[in-house]
């Protein structure tokens, strides 16, 4: 009789543990992109969706990027997808020559979209995903669209 009570108590404890864990397993955090800091407020924000979402470190993620820009995309403009640490250091980046994928120029007001497979690096701490269209990197770059999110 004692062993049946012990088995019953053990089963009850296991069931409570499983029931407590279920809501946490079903909760999915999605990545939310917004405009980039330090750019004019009228800079277009790119729409970015990820698959899988959230990103999985040391694997490939599919980025679907779209937006309608206020400036033409011409030769010299590239799509930048970067993982940046809290100190502003680039951990990893992919640079795509837009005009090798679509016919340039892409006139202002014309919807632009692309899908890119990007390797997600290993990172620690706060890391940002930056997606932008620009004619270079640094303070002299002309950024014509941008989005950022916390990884």
From TrEMBL:
InterPro entries: Ig_E-set, ML_dom. SUPFAM superfamilies: E set domains. Gene3D superfamilies: 2.60.40.770. Residues 33-151 form the MD-2-related lipid-recognition domain. The keyword Isomerase does not apply. Pfam families: E1_DerP2_DerF2. Residues 1-21 form the signal peptide. Keywords: Signal. This is Phosphatidylglycerol/phosphatidylinositol transfer protein.
